[in-house]
Design goal:
Helices cover 65% and strands 0% of the residues. The chain has 161 residues and is mostly helical. The longest helix has 22 residues.
Length: 161
């Protein structure tokens, strides 16, 4: 059973995510919001499957799944600002801009949502690229992002199976 305080926090984040994505004006904003809800749901299913009695893992999984794409539609200028502000050893390249919402976007999550949990931030940072020493939460978000139910195609169905 989910704690009422956590449920309220989750719902606040859901509303904030909705507003953030829609305010971007991106034509796929609503689709991205629904994707985030599905990643959250899948992350919860995986957490419950592997850790059925650990409420904290479940809550962290659904919360991280919800906000993993929070910075999806940020501008190039915002990413460049963060690279400079945090002295990141990252160059912005147009051809790989699809990964910046994770590899830099976790900083936007930290700044705008006030989330400082290193495990959650790292799961967001690596959800598109993975890394060689992934924690359970990182693996759950990486996998949930790929196999959530709205992803269509044989490759997604095969991995879901």
């Amino acid at each position: 059973m989910i704690d009422i305080e956590f449920a309220n926090y989750y719902n606040e984040l859901k509303d904030t995510l909705y507003d953030k994505l829609l305010s971007s004006g991106h034509p796929k904003a609503l689709k991205r919001f629904n994707h985030s809800l599905e990643v959250s749901k899948m992350a919860g299913r995986l957490a419950k499957h592997y850790y059925p009695n650990d409420q904290k893992i479940y809550e962290r999984s659904i919360l991280t799944g919800l906000i993993h794409d929070y910075a999806k539609f940020e501008t190039k200028e915002r990413y460049l600002e963060l690279i400079e502000k945090y002295h990141l050893d990252i160059e912005y390249h147009e051809e790989s801009k699809k990964v910046y919402h994770g590899s830099i976007g976790y900083l936007i999550v930290m700044e705008e949502l006030g989330i400082t949990d290193d495990e959650i931030l790292k799961a967001i940072a690596y959800h598109t690229t993975g890394n060689s020493e992934m924690t359970f939460l990182q693996e759950v978000i990486y996998l949930s992002d790929y196999i959530e139910e709205t992803r269509e195609g044989e490759q997604y169905a095969a991995v879901r199976e």
